[in-house]
Every structure is written in C-alpha cells, then in structure tokens.
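Morning run. Coffee first, then this:
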Amino acid sequence: MVSYQEISYKNYGKCLEISNGAIDLLVTLDVGPRIIRFGFCGKENMLFEDIDREQNYNKEDMRAIYGQDKTWYLYGGHRLWISPEYADTYYPDNTPIAYEKIKNGAVFVSPEQAVTGLQFTITVEIIGDSEVKISHFVANNSGDSQDFALWALTVLDKGGVEIIKMNDNDTELLPNRKITAWPYTNFADDRLFMGKKFVSLRQIPGRDESFKLGFDLNYATAAYVNHGAMFVKKYTHYENAEYPDGGCSFETFTNKIFLECETLGELGPKPDGSVTCHVETWKLFNGVTLNDPRDENEIESVWNKIDF
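And here it is:
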C-alpha cells in the first residue's frame, strides 16, 4: 500500500512524500523537481541535501542565456539534466512544478524551459519492497531539432563508497572498455581504487579536490554503500550506441561534500515535438557495509548481494 503526503521539508518548501512503509521518497514541489530523499523509513537519507546551497552556478555564460538575476542551484538529491554539459545545461529550475498521482507513484512535470523550449518530467513508481522505477522524459517543444542526451544524476550523501564493475567481455586483441577522465582528475587520488574487476571511489568529507571519471559501462549498474545500507541503480547500456563525453553511459563525480552517480542516454538529434525517455531502477539493501574499499574480494562479496 503506497501512501502520499504533502509536507514542508527543511528549507525546500513543499514536497510530496511517497512511501510503502518500508522505504520513502521525498520530491520537491516548489523547485526542481529533485528527489531529495530516498531511504528506509525512519533511517538516514541516502541522498545529499544541499541545505546551505553551497553548490550553485551563476556564471556570465549562464546569465547571458537566462537573465542576469538567475542562479542554478544543485539542491542535492536526484535530478534530470541534458548532456553534453554546457551553459544551457544549467537551467535555473527554481519555480514550482506540477504533479499527478499514479498507481504506486507520481508524475512530476516542470514548466517548459524559457529559451531552450525543453520540458522535463520525472515519474517515480514503487515497484517492490525497496525498489523503485525512475523514468525521465524530455520533450522538445523548441521548434527545432536539438542534439543532446538525457542525463540522470543522483547526488549521494557524504562518507560512502561507490562500487562499479568494469567491463569483462572478451574482445581478444581489441580493447573492451573506455575510461574517460576530466582535466582535474588525478589518477593518483587515494579515493580511487582500480582493481582487476572493480572500481571503488570513496567520498571523503572535506577533501577539496574534485574527481570525475566516465565509463562505457556494459553492466549498467553501480552501487553506493553508506549508513549501513547499499543504494543500487541500474539502467540500460546499448551496445554500439553513441554516448556523450567520448562514449560514456555512466559517469561519477565527487568533491568535499557529496558523490554523484550519473547515467546517460543515447546522444543524438531530438526532433521538434519528440519526447525522449531514460529509465533507471533503484533498490536499497539494508545491513551492508564495506570495511576496506581497496580489498577486491570484499568488494565482490558486497556486489554479489545485488539481486535484481
């Protein structure tokens, strides 16, 4: 039985709480939308909350598009963007959104964006005891075809460890994976572990250096262990599809206050009048810890708990 309740949450204003009694989600209604909370009922939020609005973007390139008084705020939680990342990506989504209840979930629709003519929709559906389906839609109402990919970013709370299973398909004499780095990425960073099968990335509170990697991730699955639980997200990786940033269907980023677990859809033209969809499935696992994020045997034992 799924319940719904409009509540006022911290400094986010009005939010919709969706719960089945085992897990709960909070989705902002006055801004965004953002899925600002996801966790077991009565337990810690697996998502990061930017209560102090530390992460924002109001550089001249963005203000030149949307207005000199505009600022984009991270807010935290889970959001929908478009890739590749450039000034248009930072649409200042600071106004109320509409929503409609559906069976076991709700649909959240943002206003059509000024200038870009794009409209974002996120659908949340609880599909199991601790499992949810998140569907992302972008409608192009601009009058012109536009090239982009849907980009779903989950901002996770500080202090955890992300686990990624690398491609292991046998391509004989040819390479079987792409790993893409950004200019500020330091491969000697001790938050990163790269083993034979797995990559782990720690979020260390207060560590100032930003870090980002991208992958052509055949397994299309990533996990984040924190607060005695494990958050897992799955998506679809299409072989031979074109993806942004040198072919990445998955990207991850961390800084001093959070870690982002990001999935991407196919890059290509989106004709006027089209609606493009990108789907993720999330699941929470209780009672999961990872003591040594550089021990590949322990990492694999944690990974093997994933059962969906």
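Residues 296-303 form the longest helix (8 residues). Good start to the day.
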